Amino acid sequence: MPVRKTYDNTSITQLKDEDRVRKRPGVIFGSDGLEGCQHAVFEILSNSIDEAREGHGKTIRVTVFADHSIEISDDGRGCPVDWNEREGRYNWELVFCELYAGGKYHNAADENYEFSLGLNGLGSCATQYASEWMDVTVLRDGFEYTLRFEKGKNIGGLNKEPYSGRKTGSRHRWKPDRDVFTDIAVPLEYFTDTLRKQAVVNPSVTFLLDYMGQKHSFFYQNGIMDYIRERQLGGRDGETEDETPPYITEPVFWSAERRGRDREDKPEYKVRLSAAFCFSQTAAFCEHYHNSSYLEHGGSPDKAVRSAFVSALDAYCKANGKYQKAESRVTWADAAECLCFVSSNFSTATSYENQTKKAVNNRYIQECMTDWLKSSLEVYLIENKAAAEAIAAQVLVNKRSRETAEKTRLGLKKKLSGTMDITTRVGKFHDCRTKDLDRREVYIVEGDSALGACKLARDSEFQAIVPVRGKILNCLKADLDKILKNEIITDLVKVLGCGIETKTKKGNASFNLSALRWNKVIICTDADVDGFHIRTMILTMLHRLTPTLIEEGYVYIAESPLFELIYKDKTAFAWSDAEKESILEQWGRPKGAQINRSKGLGENEPDMMWLTTMSPETRRLVQVTPEDAASTAEVFDMLLGDNLAARKTFIAEHGFEYLELADIS
Fold first, then answer.
1. CB 292 within 8 A of CB 354
2. How far apart (Å, rounded) are the C-alpha atoms in residues 29 and 43?
3. CA torsion, points 468, 470, 475, 478, in degrees to nearest 10?
4. How far apart are CA 365 and CA 146, in angstroms?
5. Count of CB atoms within 10 A of residue 656's CB?
6. How does DSSP assign 403-464, residue by residue?
7. DSSP SS3 for 174
8. Residue 611's pLDDT is what?
9. Which of 129, 76, 70 is nearest to 98 (CA)?
10. How many other C-beta atoms can be found within 10 angstroms of the C-beta atom of residue 621?
């Protein structure tokens, strides 16, 4: 055993300066990967957004260069970087070299920012520390200030030059450090998605993006109302004012202001609430923003919306006799299926889940937003009778469809699953003894005669057998409900144990890969035209109902030999004409050699069956692992589906290659 090092009073160390971020970036940015690098970008962007929201500047420019460096500039007041009498230090040291130093700790007192994305005084410093280099330019107070940082260290101090222009603002250009983040190639999609979202909740601000020469602009004159209409219409080309929008109800915008506190002994703070929504037959989404930060995980606003909508819609349905006798109440899932909703809230005190700001958990925000939305909805449903009727009708349709689908799903799950002992429910299935899933394998064989031969030849400790009787249903052409009425197919699915992946007309089917009972699913058919056809139909069934089994490498084909060669006391098997010729060549091509064309599986002796098809030591298995599921589906569809034109073309071009398989005698 290795010698343990001494753990004593000298074992405790402290990370200092840039090492606090560079060695533990996940603590600040949530990850040391691409997601963390992206959040570092958002930290700098947030400062520019906060300035613009306070009325200082109308345009924010983001430029991404080929070396993955990034520049963000604004027309704000410019970050104070000169001497700070109160702190006895330069502000640039506080902003860029000290965690928990900033100008946004007194928002409730309206000191510098009423509502801000930045709260903790971490962003600028943390991003600087996590950069290979950073250049900062600030225009304010009649001076141009410049700073340079490399690997978290300042180079050359603060440079200060007189500036006679009227422009003010800040410009940061930096390159994320590969020594800190595993990936710094922030994709275009991150910038377009982030800047679009920020334009939605900051309607007075234009965001300009130059991504390695690709230019984009984002501006929403009416903020979240424009966004609701854009998402609802799906950005369709050729939309005109005369076209009827696909709304169940027209978009609605509400706003309000509240003051309150999270706890009696906590200070009071201001909350500004706004929401836009409509009910739709073509789109459904629910997004929340707080102080313009997109809340991916929601938190308090999400809980408020769920509670308010369910309560108001349930009360309306009860009051207007919309429920059937003893019917269950509507749920959030029923409303969410047809609701397009965006909330954009601001508060002077915010409790984010963590520095990544993907959820807020303020108690008062949840309480006031719930009360506001609930009362507003109740009034809306009373004052807009036609809209209320349409909403209730659609939500109840969603509810009843969901309940029917759930009953169907549970019934299907019960039909296609069961315990390991399913011998009494699947005809002629012969299980193996071991419960070790790493060893269990099932042979899907062709017909009763093959079943008999394989049953006698197998090792019943780990090999199970299930027969298919005749040519099974074409699963590409048949409707799924028809497929699941086919006893052969449902028996095979029961034996597999993992359910199916395809959706039925009435809802989702159930699939659970961990419930698969086998390490290998082996298709074993005769080496003739009929056998190939049956094998293809079984593969088609698996491709349609359980494609993951193929993708994960659980499906195999057992190759049957085409020839048995006998000469004196020698016996050999050949799986191809070339192999047959090679064996005869090795034997010196004796005149007395006997060459027997392989019989069907059902006619093989158990010893031969074990040796050629079932023994792990001597059998030949081909693992079915399609490298491109899409191309595989295309071939299946061409040969077995409804694409007649493609099938005719294939036969015309390649049919001659298969004439030897046809019975033309």
1. no
2. 9
3. -130
4. 41
5. 9
6. HHHHHHHHHHHHHH---S--TTTSTT-B--S---TTT-EEEEEEHHHHHHHHHHHS-TTTEE
7. strand
8. 84
9. 129
10. 16
State how far Cα 265 lies from the chain centre: 42
Compute the distance between CA of residue 111 and CA of residue 89 in angstroms, rounded to an integer. 21
Place of tokens 């023994």: 615
Dist. CA 602–CA 221, nearest whole Å: 76
Buried/exposed code over 141-169 (b: 16+ C-beta within 10 A; e: otherwise): eeebbebebebbebeeebeeeebeeeebb
**What per-residue confidence (pLDDT) applies to 147?**
97
The CA distances from residue 69 to 134, 153, 211, 338, 553, in Å, are 9, 18, 11, 42, 42
Beta pairing class for 520-524 and 441-446: parallel
One-letter amino acid of 403? E
What is the β-pairing status of strands 339-347 and 285-290? parallel
* pLDDT value, residue 245: 57
List C-alpha distances in Å: 84 to 101, 105, 254: 12, 17, 43
The secondary structure of residue 67, as a DSSP letter, is: T
Rounded Cα gap, residues 470 and 488, in angstroms? 9
The total number of residues written for the chain in this structure: 665
From the centroid of its chain, how far is CA 29? 21
| 616, 463 contact by CB (below 8 A) | no
For the beta carbon of residue 400, count every other beta carbon within 10 angstroms.
Answer: 14
3-class DSSP state for residue 159? strand
Tokens representing 253?
């915008």
Express each pLDDT in 83-117 by its tens digit: 999 989 999 999 999 887 655 444 444 445 565 55
How is residue 306 written in tokens? 């769920």
Between helix 385-416 and helix 300-319 the angle, nearest 10°, is 100
Tell me whether residue 436 is exposed, middle or buried, using C-beta atoms within 10 angstroms of its C-beta: 0 to 12, 13 to 18, 19 or more. Answer: exposed
pLDDT digits (tens, 9 = 90+) for 202-252: 998 999 999 999 999 999 999 999 999 998 776 443 344 445 556 799 999
Residue found under tokens 């007649």: 644
Query: In whole angstroms, what is the distance from residue 29 CA to residue 122 CA?
Result: 10
Least Cα distance to 305 among 219, 366, 375 occurs for 366
Report the C-alpha gap between 157 and 147 in whole angstroms: 7
Which residues are CB-neighbours of 525 under 8 A, at least 6 positions away? Answer: 445, 446, 450, 531, 532, 534, 535, 538, 560, 601
> Is 37 within 8 Å of 182 (Cβ atoms)?
no
Pairing between β-strand 89-90 and β-strand 143-150 as defined by DSSP bridges: unpaired
- Cβ atoms within 10 A of the Cβ of 389, count? 14
Please give the Cα distance from 494 to 418 (Å, whole number): 7
Tokens, residue 317 = 């349905």
What residues are paired with 627 via a beta bridge? none
Instruction: Find the Cα–Cα–Cα–Cα dihedral 630, 636, 639, 644, rounded to 10°.
Output: -60
For the chain, the first-to-last Cα distance in angstroms comes to: 76
- Between 43 and 243, the more confident residue is 43
Question: What own/partner pairs with CB < 8 Å and gap ≥ 24 does 141-149 have?
Answer: 141/78, 141/82, 143/82, 145/78, 145/81, 145/82, 145/92, 147/81, 147/92, 147/96, 149/96
Per DSSP, the three-state class of 63 is: strand
Q: Does residue 203 sit in helix, strand or coil? A: coil
